[in-house]
Write a structure and sequence with these properties.
The structure is a single chain. The protein is α+β, with helices and mostly antiparallel strands and 70 residues long. The protein has three helices and three strands, in the order E-E-H-H-E-H. The chain has helices spanning 22-30, 36-39, 58-69; strands at 2-9, 14-19, 44-52. Strands 2-1-3 form a three-stranded antiparallel sheet, with helices on both faces. The longest helix is centred in the C-terminal third of the chain and has 12 residues, at 58-69. The model has no long low-confidence stretch (mean pLDDT 83).
Length: 70
């Protein structure tokens, strides 16, 4: 299964990603080995995650989350 997640970065920005191993991916982000957006904005904080049997295009997920947060 896939996990879609949202991180809050130290500068208040957000990062959305997907992975099959959330613990490993969070560790990568915290060590600066994650996405370019997060590696210069440490530490990051996991604020949301949800598991899915299939992976959706990230732009579809982001639109849904923005609608819920707004």
């Amino acid at each position: 299964s896939w996990t879609v997640y949202i991180l809050e970065c130290a500068d208040g920005s957000y990062y959305t990603g997907s992975t099959t191993d959330l613990e490993r991916r969070l560790a990568q982000h915290q060590c600066g080995e994650g996405a370019n957006h997060t590696k210069n904005r440490l530490p990051v904080k996991l604020i949301y995650y949800e598991k899915f049997d299939i992976i959706f295009p990230m732009n579809t997920f982001c639109i849904c989350v923005i609608s819920v947060i707004a």
